[in-house]
TrEMBL record, chain B:
InterPro entries: ABC_transp_permease. The lineage of its organism: Bacteria, Bacillati, Actinomycetota, Actinomycetes, Micrococcales. It is found in: Cell membrane. Keywords: Cell inner membrane, Cell membrane, Membrane, Transmembrane, Transmembrane helix, Transport. It comes from Conyzicola nivalis. The chain crosses the membrane at residues 23-43, 55-76, 81-99, 105-125, 137-157, 177-196, 231-250, 256-276, 283-304, 310-328. This is Ribose transport system permease protein. It is a multi-pass membrane protein. The keyword Transmembrane applies. CDD domains: TM_PBP1_transp_AraH_like. It holds the Pfam family BPD_transp_2. Its main location: membrane.
Amino acid sequence: MSQTLTTAPVAKAAPVVDWKGRFLAALPFIVLVLLVLIVTSKQPNFVALGSVRGLLESMAPILLLALGQTFVILTGGIDLSFAATASFGSVLLALWLPELGVVGVVAVLGVMTLIGFINGFVIAKAQIPSFIATLGALGLYSGLGLAISGASNIRISTGYEAIAWITDVRVAQLPLAAILVIVLAILISVAMRVLNRGKSFHAIGLAEQALLMSGGSTVRIRILAFTLCGLFSGLAAVMLAASQHSGGPTLADTLQLPAIAAVVIGGTAITGGVGGPIKTVIGALIIVVLRVGLTAVGVDPSFEQIVYGIVIIAAVVLTIDRSRLGVVK
Amino acid sequence: MTSTSTTIGESVTTTRGAQIKKFVVGAGPLVALVALVVFFAIASPTFSQPGNLSILLTQLSILLVIGVGLTFVILLGSIDLSVEGVMASSSLVFVLFAANDRNDFEFGLLAVVAGILTGSLFGLVNGVLHVRLGIPSFMVTLGTGAIGIGLATVLFGGRAPRLLDEGLRAWGVGSTAGLSNLVFIAIVVLGLAFLVQRFTRVGRYGYVIGGDEPIAKLSGINIRKYKISSFVLSGTASGIAGVMAATQLGVGDTTIGTGFLFTAITAVVLGGTLLVGGRGGVIRTLIGVAIITVLANGLILVGVDPYIQTAVQGLVIVVAVIASGWSLRRRVRVIK
Amino acid sequence: MSSPVLEVKNLTKTFKNVVALDDVTFEVRRHEVVGLIGENGAGKSTLLKILSGIYQPDSGEILRNGKKTVFRGVNDSAKAGIGMVHQEQSLVTSVTVAENILLGSEGNAVIAGIYNWRALNAKAQKQLDKIQSPISPKEHVEDLSFAQRQMVELAKALGVEEFSADEPVIVLDEPSSVLEGDELEVLFAQIERLRQIASVIFVSHRLDEVLRVSDRVYILKDGKCVAERNPETADVDELHRLMVGRESSAEFYRENDQKPVHNEKVVLQVDGLGKSHAFSDVSFDVRLGEVLGISGVLGSGREELTRVLFGAEPFDSGTITLDGKKVRFASPVGAVAAGFGYIPAERRIEGIAQGMSVQDNMFLADPRPVSFGPFLLPKKASEIASQWIERLRIRTPDRNANISNLSGGNQQKVVLAKWLNSPRLRVLILDHPTRGLDVGAKEDVYTFVRQLCTQGIAIILLADTLEETIALSHSIIVMRDGEIQSRFDASPGNKPKPVDLVQQMV
């Protein structure tokens, strides 16, 4: 052989346990526990049933939105329209419930899912960045919602029975709806493990090029992620309409930042590929406990936005995988 | 070494199709603007009255300042979503330092400087976090935008502080030669921005970095410095816009910037500045802002629901991005 | 004889387990055009990267006008007056010609960050004048043709003159590959002009061009500088032989395991396939169990051809027929479903799914063998994964290890397993399959290729070396500048020699 040879190298030794990775993965949970401890020390009745009920009730719509967003962020994208879409959905629900009852609920969920599908379709087929496409969608559905509702909330009186159970039904004094959302998150997590294509979203986030060159239909997976996000926005819309007894064009808008924060704080990396629904549940819990915690510690509620902003940036910094970013824009 | 990359079989942009596209992107917006003006002049008698034109120009001013700042960031291929938060914070800092009904400060022009610098500071933070920590710009500015609103909320303290300085108030409500003073401020800002874009490294290297960052890096350019500078320019512009809005409304308010971000991005896109970076400029943004403002003004006169406008703007952004990116589509391509 | 303006002595550079440059010595004299030829992997690219300061040599020295110099980076090389016109376009299309020519070195045309356009354009014009180009410095690069852009690159490269008192050394790396017809003549005229104000190193795979333009020619092979010749007296055949001649061991390539395929059915048939600016009128067929090797240098069109077959790029003309049915894929999704597999050259980005486990990687192309409907069968998956690890001798801590931690060779085996797992596999495309692999891994790959053939899988091979191509293939087609130059039968006992291939490639 004319080629100069060196001795065959040994296969790279398995690295010692990835302490940094493990620590970061456990961090959200540690933070949650710490927060609960701190808040309980200041407000002992924090862990009382009534308080927990309130916590779960405020967490549920955020968690629904965050779960939908989780699918999208796992693929490495983002959906900036998800909260505005939910608001739009609540407006539609308020208009359709009186006439259609439960069918109205199904119709709204259908429309929301379709909106998500359109987002995903456009993004995947036209190959445009998701943040700008969903920024446009944000304007579109926000504008439509405002136009249809005349920029005001619509009270739901007749037809409310169809969604009344969401706020009324309790199980062991805890809101059933909230528990169902958590169960849903668990089911999704299980599905991701059990289905042979369950890790598709992660795969796109981690190695889209390799997936493409292995014959994987990244177009389909991406569309699915955004479609699911739309569906979950719809679920959030229904839940919000139930708790507020009304639909409004800005009903869910204030939840946009907390929901994104929940996903990111839970440990799902903005670069995609890492994370999942259970992490998002932890993230959502952190968000709501943080809210209560801030007031308990005596922080002015007007600081809330600042806290969200800082927390989001911090969480992104900790979880971002720069090696996969290439040129950052 | 070799890259079996996506540039196989690409010919240079001298094909017929590319030339047509270049022409449309180049002259299109201006033609559209003229067409719109003509249309509304015909459709509504009120449109071409001097009073309306004056209102139109005033409406255009603040949007133009924001759009001009955004242009620098978009030329890089990045985005700045913190505009509304920065405007809110700047307006409050400005009002609270000028003569107001909450405290005894009366810093006059220095208050203006303080307001503007607030914007610059936010821009600096945006740039540094984005460049040094490698966080995508949409994420950073989403976070700092929230911080901006939050800071404004804290400063707001439950009730809007009112601007009592008559001299400064006149900037917003007074007029010179029949045009609102805000228009002149906007013209000055536009002029300065054009000079920066055409005659300074911040401007020119912005085009280079946005056009081909890897090559820029190989040439030994300090990319970080120029990226951060562009974000500072955008933040400063938002700061100026916040101050302008405060003089116009007479208060500092957390909601002072609501709706501007969206409209400004639409304006930049409509003007022909590409979101992928490297192409466009502040003059194009001027045309885009004019289009948006004429549309907004005209449609209201014709009786169209303003919220439908927002919806249409959203659609326009999506269509514009699809159109400009259509020829770049490839089978094996990753866009997140 | 004029003194050398640039000398390279005993330059050596090794990457991991590959020696890219081995004790290379050559010189460029004043106002000379020196040609560099060599086939793929000869070391030309590495040498140029060292000269431009991108790589540092492991040993040896570089002398500029007799003085020892070290290039610690791109700027050092430019300051030493070495200007490079790269193979890939390196102009920023969003700004003007002047800005490109002076990018990063505007000097006193930009003071305190403020542009003096008149000065900038004048400076750029000075460079353009050197090559007597009619292009205006104010033009926007996006409006220029490829040929014009190359002239701008040349003017830019000449800019290094401003940095050093010496006359520049201009390196042209495959400058003619993007040019056609008259544009070539313009290029050659430029090189003649350059001769008077600089010294030139001309690198190209087109032997006839190199011989036409150069005063002296160096031949690189396997990282060594094997010969120096005068083009006027050189014998083209001898040059071909110098470029390739090496002993090959039939044992290494498992040639004994190669089985003849003359009577097998045709699996893939390609007729008049063409893709603009890449290749044209390509026709061939591949039978069950056959290895078709495609030889060619960079720019020959062979890489583009395989990507078109896999559906990763569209084609403009011709047909592809698989198992008797005409096919046209909209993307790799269709190709994989129809039975194509692809082991890519860019292993880390397109071959393996970094961050995922070895096992997950194995079922990336087709999870059906380990599924029941939509559900994963974890036990079956781990069984099959373990089997592959054993069969292919993949060295990994376990099947759940992160694939990014494996060595290149083992990663490649996982990629192989991914395609072997797919029961649909009919045609497997191997694009530089042994690149970056150590000897042991290479041998394994050759063994598996033989095994695949016995299973009836058709293989299209783009190999790293001519020896590999010849030893592994049943038939070979040689491509040059987008067309098939010739075909060779390479059945066992009837193998062509590397020289025969090279003659067609360059």
